[in-house]
Amino acid sequence: MPRPSLLMPLCALLLIGSCAPAPAEAPYAISRGLRLETVAEGLAAPVYLTAPSGDPRLFVVEQDGRVLVLENGRLRPQPFLDLRDRVRSGGEQGLLSLAFHPRYAENGFFYVDYTDRNGDTRIERYRVSRDPNRADPSSGRLLLRIVQPYSNHNGGLVLFGPDGMLYVGMGDGGSGGDPQGNGQNRSTLLGKLLRIDVDRGAPYAIPPDNPFASGKGGRPEIWAWGLRNPWRYAFDREAGLLYIADVGQNRWEEIDVAPADRPGLDYGWNVMEGNHCYAAPRCDASGLWPPTVEYPHPQGCSITGGFVYRGRDIPALVGHYVFSDYCSGWLRSFRHVDGRAVDLRQWDVGKIGSVSSFGLDGTGELYVLTLQGRVLRLAPAR
Fold first, then answer.
1. Distance between CA 320 and CA 378 in Å, rounded?
2. Is the pTM of this model over 0.90?
3. How do residues 97-114 score in pLDDT, each as one tens digit?
4. Domain-wise residue ranges, the chain
């Protein structure tokens, strides 16, 4: 039995026959300087990969609720963490990401984002056990529980920013077209990028520079809003930028790039889909932060965001933001220069599969994960 799709396009689910024809393709130059090395196969729907800084191991998140350890090219026989008894998995639900605390070597803390048996989002903190390859399952502590009205658009990424704050990406709550208006409703955590201080407070504190830290005008956890389903975002610490890959409705996929230290941005959903009015032929886009890159269906159906490459092994890729599409499976990149996307490339790396996510190892090298169970490492072409 094939595994269920992690990011089944809503165009196919809800709007059959309504997808608009795509305009001319963006000028992505075909490049042949990369290849993909298989690191592991046969995993159960891997959806994220990460590692503590400087750690040679790879920690792979499986959608059904396990975190596995890859060490010296082999999977360790026991999982690092097993939450399958409390995770609802399938479709867009499951254990969706893991983030190690910046001082993990000292405190052993890490954070997970998953959908529980009720289908709601839970952000929890755990601690590693005395065995560095096993977490302590009894150490779980709930930070946030967010009720999900539908089963899709859960967001799912937890990631520490350069400022040491924990960021949480939340989708608009699901269905199609944001029927509850959550993207523009600042009194809900759905359709938002959240920012919390996990080193203070119980269970967390609100950073004083969050746009609604006072509680007036919106929920104090909110950093940005107007998101449909941010399927991966990333910080480029060297350039001071935040990249958000936001999955579109039925016509446009987008990548938003903004200064990482700029709070209170509205990325436009559901007023806009990409650079285009969503619900009406005319709309008011004033005050909205426009995407830097977009592409139409059927070039793809559901964007999979990656990272800006700052590793050492592929000099030609340094400074490029690398991303893919769940349906099309191509590998693309661009550089962000003076507010614009330049040097757009589509890398000739052969067939990849359904790209579910990207990941960085402890030295900054870049990996691609497929829902077919593969972990692939980017390397320079021979």
1. 13
2. yes
3. 999 999 999 999 999 999
4. 10-15+39-380
